[in-house]
Each structure stands twice: as structure tokens, then as C-alpha cells.
Amino acid sequence: MVKTFQSSFQLIILLIVALALVACGGEESSNPINPTEAVSPTMLAAVGTAVPAATATLPPPVMPTITLPPPAVVNDEPTPTLPPTPTATPESVALYSKADFGTDRNPLTGELMADPSVLLRRPIAIKISNNPPSFTRPQHGIGQADLVFEHVTETNITRFTVIFYGQTPSDVGPIRSARLIDKELPAMYDAALFMSGSHPLILDAIAQTDIGDRIYRETATGFYRKEDNPDIPFEHTLYAHTAELWDFLEWGHDNRPPNFTATMAFDTTPPEGGETANYVEINYSTWSKVVWEYDAENGRYYRTVDDEIFIDGNNGEQVSAANVIILYAPHQFDRSICIYPTANGGCDLYTTEIQIWGSGYAMLIRDGHKYDVTWLRQNRSDMFTFVDSAGNPVPLQIGNTWFQVVPFYYDDPIIE
Predict the structure, then answer these.
(1) Following CA atoms 178, 181, 182, 187 in sequence, which dihedral angle do they give, to the nearest 10 degrees?
(2) How wide is the angle at C-alpha 226 spanned by C-alphas 225 and 229, nearest 5°?
(3) Contact 301/292 with Cβ under 8 angstroms?
(4) Is the pLDDT of residue 267 over 70?
(5) What is the rounded CA–CA span in Å between residue 51 and residue 45?
(6) Residue 150: is its pLDDT beyond 60?
(7) How far apart are CA 34 and CA 142, in angstroms?
(8) CA-CA distance, 37 to 31, in Å (whole number)?
(9) Residue 114 in contact with residue 289, Cβ under 8 Å?
(10) Smallest Cα–Cα separation from 266: which of 125, 94, 55, 415?
(11) Hey, how many other C-beta atoms are within 10 angstroms of the C-beta on 161?
(12) What is the DSSP string of 129-149?
């Protein structure tokens, strides 16, 4: 009985130790005890100890996540330096023969046309007034012309013959009467001539030429009068819509591609040599001082007249040109055409004829330089072309051109 008590007491002691170890987290000892083997439910029941229904399982401890910065990368290689992006240079264009122009370059300016179909229409020449300034300026549409010819009339005032081909200004004017030079200019550019009229003898002289069937006066469709300013005399109120003028030619079956029998040369690269020409001044007698000043940033010459900016009335912009040509030609009175006859059968004033056929001297001004050239017009239908002393073509800059037609007896222009 004593042994039984001692055995039971020993079991109780063992059970207390085991439970103490579980309560302490199961710390290891030098003599570990396996409770599954050492203490069974039967043994616990013998001493009156309850068995737990289930043993709770604790979740594993959650350790915080630490994000370390990436290790530094040591690069001993030098950083490459990229070369600068090259600036695009304009493509060089050289146009010396008809084939060079193809079907999309304007033969009168060398410009590439966004709509090449406009080159299938006939050029038109329009007569525009320039005097008196208070009634005629600003002229409309003149800044969009391919070519402008400024020439003197009988009383040394100037007038314009303007060639339109590549552009279509909305309004052109004021339109005035033709002169004998208009026998020649429309023939050179295969153009139709639009004017307000002319002296009967001058009109007859023009009509007797090969352009006589393409002369149009103010009765043509497209002409209209601007009479909103009562201070403007009636003779300075005639204008035209150029689009309607071309429609009129189409209606009359007179609109067709031009036949150019000669071609001006164009080259974006200036000729060698030449003299500085950043400022050009031409004095048309005492009536008008014309000045062209060069802008090196865009390569164009800007026009002032009598110390006032010369603008286009359509857009208010100063008129400019890529080329200015001072063209010398003989001027003489045509004594078969009297403008102002006297009562006794005499004549106070004859019309002026400007001889722009054959050849002559000219100054070609482009890209800030002046070049002495010879102008040529060997056939009636030829446009002006230009050669140097060796007979080689001298090219114009691509763009529009103003011709300052002057007599030999004028003072030399001021060119600086």
C-alpha cells in the first residue's frame, strides 16, 4: 500500500513538472521529457486530472520586412558626349533649262508650287496706277505678283505692268490705262492683258500686234468699282478679282497653259563676285524716289517710296522682292502718237516708246550683291534672260522679281 501511494505520488510529481514545462514554452533541459510517452491520458485519469479537448496552435511570429536601398553602382567609364544635332540646311536648287523646272516649278519665279495645276492657266498682265500717291496707294495685290515692271510714262510719272501667274490675289488695283510697253510685256509671258482702256492710238497700236485678241477692258467679268471714298476720283476706282478674271478667260476659251519660248535661270547659290548691295536707291526724275533695303535674315529686299513704306493694301504688309533688276532701255517719243495735240495742228506731248527688244545693260541685285549683266530678248515671244560678259547665264534667286525700267539719261542709282 505504501508502494502504491509512492507510485501515485511520483506520477503526480512527474505530471506537475511536465505541465510546468509546457507552460514555460517547452524550454529544453538537459533531460528532456516526451509528454506523449511519459504521461498518457489513462495515467492522468488515474489521478483524477482532466484532459483538454484540443491543444491551441499559435501562429508563427511575423517579422517586419526591411527594404534595403540598392547597392551603389560605381561607373568608372566616362559619360559619352553626343554630337549636336546638325541644323538642316536648305536644299540647293539650280534651274537652268526647261527640263529643270519639271511640271511643279513656276518658270517665272522658280518656286515649287503646292498646287501645280495653277501652272496650267494663262498668265495675266494687269495695268496698275502709281500716281498721284494719295489716290493710288496702297496698291492692292501687287505684293503677290510674280513679276512687276515699273516704267515711266509721258510725263515721267511711273506706272506698273504686273504679271500674275503662281498666286491669285483677291483684289488688284487701282487699274489704269495701257502704254506702248504693253505691246511687248504680254507677248513675252504669253499673257492676257487687262486694263481700264487706253488712248485710242495706243490701243490701236497694241491691237494690231499678235496680242490683239487677248486685250480686255473694264467691261470684262471680274472688274468692279470701289466708290466708298468720295475723295477718290472716278478714274482711280477700278479694281478686279483675279479669280474672276481667270474664270472669264475660261469662259471665252482663252485660258490655256503658256508657251514660254525662253526661260530665266534660278539658283539658290549666288553667283561669284558682285558688289555689295544692301541699299539701292533709284530716282525717277523728281517724281519718285524708290528704295530697296536688304534683310539678310530672309534674303529679301523691302521697298519704300518717297520715304514711306510701300505696302500691299490687301494685307498691310511691306512689299518685298527676292530680286531687283535695274534694266536700262532706250526711251524715245513715238511721234506717230500725239497725246496732247494743239489747236493749230501741233503736239504738246507724244507718247513714249520703251525699246525692250534685242539686248542691253542691267544690274541684277540679289542676296545683298549687285551683278552687272546683259539682258537679252532675241525673239518677240522671249522673256528677259541674263548673261555675264562671257555669255554664261546669270541666275536669279528663287522668288518674285521687280524690274525697275529706266532710261539711260537718268542719274546712276545709289547702291551701298
Answers:
(1) 180
(2) 140
(3) yes
(4) yes
(5) 8
(6) yes
(7) 115
(8) 14
(9) no
(10) 94
(11) 27
(12) ---SHHHH-S-BSGGG-SEEE
Q: What is the pTM of this model?
A: 0.79
Which spans in 102-230 are helix H? 133-136, 185-188, 200-207
Helices (H) and strands (E) in the chain, counts: 8, 23
Cell numbers standing for residue 185: 510685256
Q: How many CA atoms, within 13 angstroms, populate the side-chain half-sphere of residue 325?
A: 27
Residue 77: pLDDT above 60? no
- List domains and CATH numbers for the chain: 2-46 (no CATH), 94-415 (3.50.90.10)
Q: Provide the β-strand partners of residue 173.
A: 140
Question: What amino acid is encoded at 77 in this protein?
Answer: E
- Paired residues of 281 in beta bridges: 291, 414
Average pLDDT over residues 32-52: 39
CB burial of 189-214 (b: ≥16 within 10 Å; e: otherwise) equals: bbbbbbbbbbbeebbebbeeeebeeb
Q: Name the phi and psi angles at 70, rounded to 5.
A: -65, 150
- For 275, half-sphere exposure in the C-beta direction (CA atoms, 13 angstrom radius) is 11
Among residues of the chain, what percentage have pLDDT more than 70? 78
Q: How far apart are CA 118 and CA 108, in angstroms?
A: 13
Is there a contact between 109 and 399 (Cβ–Cβ < 8 Å)?
A: yes
Query: Whats the size of the chain, residue-wise?
Result: 416
* Cα distance between residue 137 and residue 149, in whole Å: 17
Query: Rounded to whole angstroms, how far apart are CA atoms 259 and 250?
Result: 17
Amino acid, res. 176: R
Q: What are the cell numbers at 152?
A: 515711266
Distance CA 8, CA 160 (A): 140
